Every structure is written in structure tokens, then in C-alpha cells.
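Thread: quick sanity check before group meeting

JM: Hey all, I'm pulling together slides for Thursday and realized we never actually wrote out the predicted structure for the chain we discussed last week. Dropping the sequence here so it's in one place. If anyone has concerns about the input, flag it before I start.
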Amino acid sequence: MSILLLLGMAVGEAQVMWNLKATGMLRKSYDDLSSYRNDSRRNTIDWGAGLELEIPIKGRLSIETGLMYKNHLVLSFDKDWENKSGMVHYDHGFLDCLRVSFLELPVRLTWNQHIHRRISTHIGFGPYVSYGFGNFTGNSGNKGGVEVGLQPSVAFYFRNFNIGASYNFPIYHNYHDKNKPAIMLTMGIRFKSSAWKYVGATALVVGTVGLGALAIAGMSKSSDSSSYSGDSSSNSSRSSRSKGDSGGLSEQNSYNTDKATYSRYDSLLSSAFAGNSSASLSEIRDWQSKMKKLRQKWESKGKSFPHSSNEDR
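JM (edit): ok, ran it. Output follows.
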């Protein structure tokens, strides 16, 4: 339940963006068995498309993830059948050239640097995992090829239009490919996502209610275990403590909600100051005023409360 609460505060209050992206790559590769036999690479085109999410974390840091479809030319072979001279038994079908459809899931930590009011650069790095649909020769007859690796990337944003490049650096794959990866060019359009607000809000409510229910259940169990004493004054004392705990739980829920609201205003201000979203001066001043009131409310009660620099900017 606490995980849902944190998820709601992190995702629901963040300004999550979609990025509809297409990729293309021109590379020298073996496109059939004859070209491999003659060691003559030819120009081939690999391509892909998908939908990515940009989830702000703090300041200029964000996480980029999503699902990409890619179509690659693969020259696959079974290394166990390679003889001592290094020649592959072509006639027995142990070497095969095929186009493979891959589904790829990247998770990149990205640094966003604002260059101009409408221009920014995003530099990312993180792992990826991809799955290829097909019967790979080097996969001992098993269908499907798995690849895991690292993916550095860079992109330049002009408002919400972006161009960039990424490179897949394989660390593990269960098939052998004579065609090496290359830099893939990317092009995309970014737009806002309102759906993730509701996902985050739902997680926040479920997490808060769940924690409250667990706390009440724990208090009820504690009360039942001590009810055998039969002391009426003890029962009265437990009743008053239960009321006090309920009041404290209600105040804690209110505190968590106000912190989440403060974080939401902070994310909106960060996005506006970075130039990733548009906001009028009156809107900015209104958000800062509400943040200040929330902070002063809890500090007057002696509780610690976040104080973002965006509030005074």
C-alpha cells in the first residue's frame, strides 16, 4: 500500500509526456548468404516506431521508457556448427539471413538541458531489453531471440518536435548475428498525457485508504487481545486512545495529501521555468502562493514540510 502511495505522489503529480517516435538506420550489412560468402556488405535499412513516456523525477532529471517496434536484418548462425577453418556449413542451413521483428523496452535516465526558450537537449543512458519474433538459427531451434544491453541516446527538442540518435550496445543475446548494430536516427513528436494524472490519483487514493485500513485493523486486533482483562476503566482508556489514533491518522492523511499537492505545483513550476510547458505570470504567482500557504499551514503546527526554491523564484 505504501508503494501505491509513493507511486501516486510521484507519477500522478508529475507532468508525464508521450513521445510518438520513429527510427531509421542505414548500415552496411550482409543481406543474404551469398554476400556473406563473398564478404561483400551492402546498404540496408532498418526501421522502427513506437510510443515512449517521459516521466519527470526532479529538476532536469526524468525517466524515458516505452515500447518500440523495430525491424532488423539479422544474419544468424549456430556457432556450434562452425568448423575449425571458420567456415560455416551453408548447405546444411546452419546460416540464415532473415528480417526479424523486435519489441524493445528501454529505461533511460535522462538529463534535460534548456538551451533556448524553445530549444532543449535530452541526454539519456540506461538498459534495454528486446525480444525478436522468429526462428533464429543460432537459437538451437527455439523460437524467439532475446537481447539485453545498454542504450545511450541524445535528442534535440524544438518545442515538442524532436530529432536525435540512439545506439544499442548489446551485453547478452541468445543468438549470433554477423550484422553489427549501428547508430539509429530518431524523430518524434511529444504531447501531454492527461490519463496518467488519473492513474496517479487512483494509486494515491488506494494507497491512502489501504494504509488507513491496515492501521485500523491493527488497532482493532490490539484492542481485542487486551479485552480479556475485564477492567472497565481500561476499556474506557482504550476507547479514548482509539479516538485519538483516528484523529492522528486523519491528520496524517491530510498532511500526505497537502505534500502531494505541493509537489504537483512544484512540478508545474519546474516545467514552466524549463520551457517545457506554457504558463502565464498570474498562473505562476497563483501556484507559488498556494505552495506558500500549504507550507506555512504545517510549519505552524510544528511539522516539517518541503520548501522548494520554485516557491520563491
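AS: nice. Confidence is low (pLDDT under 50) at residues 2-7, 81-93. The CA atoms of residues 12 and 197 lie 5 Å apart.
JM: adding both to the slides.
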